[in-house]
Design a protein that fits this description.
With 100 residues, the protein is an alpha+beta fold. It has a 3-stranded antiparallel β-sheet with strand order 2-1-3. It is globular and about 50 Å long. 19% of the residues are buried.
């Protein structure tokens, strides 16, 4: 069995992202004890996208944030983009509809 150490990465995915190269790694948890700091930062980054009922709304987000657990920053960027592709499309469709 091969053991690979995984790290938690906080990623920022701009609405204009066209691929993993556009994803930014904001920070990472150096160890499991550091995870609460990363999660707190994640919550602060996305708090503006909550509606009046306290529910997260992807259509209110100015950019998308994700916590990804993987082995490398390159892998984190790829996973963050792929996992949030549908959210990017939904958000952009909503903005286009609101603009007309």
């Amino acid at each position: 069995m091969i053991y690979t150490e995984k790290t938690f990465y906080l990623c920022r995915i701009p609405l204009s992202a066209e691929g993993p190269q556009d994803v930014e790694i904001m920070t990472k948890a150096e160890n499991i004890e550091d995870f609460p700091r990363v999660f707190d930062e994640y919550e602060k980054c996305r708090k503006h996208a909550f509606n009046k009922d306290g529910l997260f709304s992807i259509v209110r987000a100015d950019e998308i944030f994700a916590i990804i657990r993987t082995t490398t920053s390159k892998s984190a960027k790829e996973m963050a983009f792929e996992e949030n592709r549908a959210n990017l499309i939904t958000n952009l469709q909503h903005r286009v509809m609101q603009g007309k």
